[in-house]
Structure formats: structure tokens, C-alpha cells
Design a protein that fits this description.
The protein is an alpha/beta fold. It has a single domain, classed as 3-Layer(aba) Sandwich (Rossmann fold), CATH 3.40.50.620. About 30% of the residues lie in helices and about 25% in strands. It has helices spanning about 40-55, 65-75, 95-110, 135-140, 200-215, 270-285; strands at about 1-5, 10, 35, 55-60, 80-85, 120, 145-155, 160-170, 170-180, 185, 220-225. The protein has a nine-stranded mixed sheet, with helices on both faces. The chain has a two-stranded antiparallel ribbon with strand order 2-3. Helix 2 packs antiparallel against helix 5. It is globular and about 70 Å long. The model has no long low-confidence stretch (mean pLDDT about 90).
Length: about 290
């Protein structure tokens, strides 16, 4: 069983300002980056699949050289090997150009390493929030896709995957669907890995410890491919291959704090009494 996890780096707003160029494009090389939080659910789903069925987990990302650290974060959750698709020709890609590039990378992994049975993607990214790249890559691969997945089971003999997916409308409903392998699975933030057997829990513990040790030297497990390695025409990837046009980007100013805080030392008995008396009314639900 071979799983590929698609992941992306997103701006880390906690570390500093996000940098844009004069055309409104995010300058990822100048912006602190972390692994997209929603991709962690995809990585955990791939780990669960390995625990249950064995095999290999690969993690893949497209972006600047700094994204190798993002793949290192993915390996801390779990990955056997890492693939970074990176060069200037891929820069400033929209979701469509990104999907073309990543799908081609997956096809190269299938040819040179092992054909994937499942490709896992996060629900959406913290910067674009379109949720397009996973399904678009699936379209490029011509595979079935199941989105908003919160649980899944694989039948290796029948070569099928059955998944429970969250359907949101007037009310939230759970839908169970099944499709053939290979397939693309887009995990929902409600996804919860399940390890019912003691053997699975022990395997999970061992694999988690193993991948954390491997992540300490993640670059030894990293393969970098550029557009020439993937045999991609520069006219169809990156900014040149992106039909999306960003008209402008307006930063949202940070709202001023409207609440005041009173500092009370824990050794100040009178101050702590006042705090307790103030909170007492709220403890009663008033």
C-alpha cells in the first residue's frame, strides 16, 4: 500500500509580516512558512493506512527551496520519503497550474518508485482557502475523489476504499461512499484516526518514534525535481500557466485591543479575593 500526502507551506503570521511584491503576488521566499494545518489530517490518515496495511508513505510539496522544511514537518507526523517540486518556472502558480505540476510529480513517483494506491490532501490551505488543488490534481490523474472524509477503510483484496464523509447543508449528515483504487482522499478537519486493535496501537507507537528520528535528518530522504525533471512545458505551469489573475491585495489592519487587563499577583491576598468575588457571579451562570 503506497500513499502520497500532498502538503503545502503557508505563511506563518505568528513569526512576522507576510511579504507581497508590487503585483500582489505572495513572496514566499521572504515570508516565514509552516506546514498547512489542514494537511496534518491528511498525513495522519496516511499514517493510519500504513499502520493497518503496511507499505510506504511519501510526502510531496511544490514550492521554493524553503519548503523542504515544510516536508520535514510532514515527516514528523509520518513519511518514508519526501519529494519537493521546485524551480523558478513553477513560481506564482494558481491552483490549476499547481495541480498540473503535482499530478505530474505523482506520476513520476508512480513510474520511478511505486504506483500510489491513495493520494491524501488537506481540506484547504490557510492562505488561499479554495480547496481546489486536491480535486484538480485528481482530475489530472483521472482518478476518483472522495472529499470531506472523516473516516476510511481500505479493502486490499477488492482494491476499494470506503469512506465516511461529512455533508454540510441545513444539517450536518454523514454519507458513506465507496470507490476503486487508486483514489484521491481529501480529509476533513473532523477526521479522526482509529486504532481499535492493540497491534495497531503498538505499530502506531513504533512508527511515530521511527519517523521522528528520521525527521531529524529529513534532507537525507528528500528528492528535488524541477520542471525539466518532470518534462513540463514552462508555458503551462507557474504564472504563465495560471488563468487566475489577482487584481489587488489589501492587507487587513490589526484591530486595536478593546479589553483592558488587570494584573494580580498570586501572593496578593486582597487582590485574589477581589478576583474570586468578581468571578463568582459568572460561575453561577449570570
Amino acid at each position: 500500500m503506497h500513499s502520497v500526502v500532498m502538503t503545502k507551506g503557508v505563511p506563518d503570521f505568528s513569526e512576522g509580516q507576510v511579504s507581497f511584491d508590487e503585483d500582489g503576488h505572495l513572496e514566499r521566499g521572504k515570508t516565514p512558512t509552516v506546514m498547512n494545518p489542514n494537511d496534518a489530517y491528511a498525513a495522519r490518515a496516511a499514517l493510519m493506512t500504513k499502520v493497518r496495511h503496511g507499505g510506504r508513505v511519501s510526502a510531496m510539496s511544490m514550492g521554493p527551496p524553503g519548503y523542504k522544511e515544510v516536508l520535514g514537518e510532514a515527516m514528523e507526523i509520518y513519511a518514508d520519503d519526501l519529494y519537493l517540486l521546485s524551480d523558478r518556472e513553477m513560481a506564482a502558480a494558481d491552483t490549476w497550474a499547481t495541480a498540473i505540476t503535482v499530478a505530474t510529480g505523482i506520476e513520476k513517483v508512480a513510474t520511478e518508485v511505486e504506483p500510489p494506491d491513495l493520494v491524501f490532501a488537506g481540506f484547504k490551505t490557510a492562505d488561499g482557502e479554495t480547496g481546489h488543488t486536491g480535486p484538480q490534481a485528481c482530475w489530472c490523474l483521472d482518478w476518483p475523489v472522495i472529499t470531506h472524509v472523516i473516516a476510511l477503510d481500505v479493502d486490499e483484496e477488492e482494491r476499494t476504499v470506503r469512506a465516511k464523509r461529512l455533508v454540510e447543508g441545513d444539517v450536518e449528515e454523514i454519507e458513506t461512499v465507496e470507490c476503486d483504487l487508486p483514489a484521491v482522499i481529501v480529509t476533513d478537519p473532523e477526521f479522526e484516526p482509529t486504532y481499535r486493535k492493540a497491534s495497531h496501537r503498538l505499530t502506531h507507537k513504533d512508527l511515530s518514534a521511527e519517523t521522528k528520528r528520521r525527521a531529524e535528518e529529513y534532507e537525507e530522504h528528500l528528492t528535488v525535481w524541477d520542471h525539466a525533471d518532470l518534462n513540463l512545458d514552462p508555458d503551462y505551469i507557474g504564472l504563465s500557466g495560471s488563468p487566475t489573475i489577482v487584481e489587488s491585495v489589501d492587507p487587513i489592519p490589526k484591530a486595536p485591543a478593546e479589553r483592558e487587563a488587570t494584573m494580580v499577583d498570586s501572593t496578593d491576598s486582597d487582590g485574589m479575593t477581589e478576583v474570586a468575588e468578581t468571578m463568582a457571579a459568572f460561575a453561577g451562570g449570570d
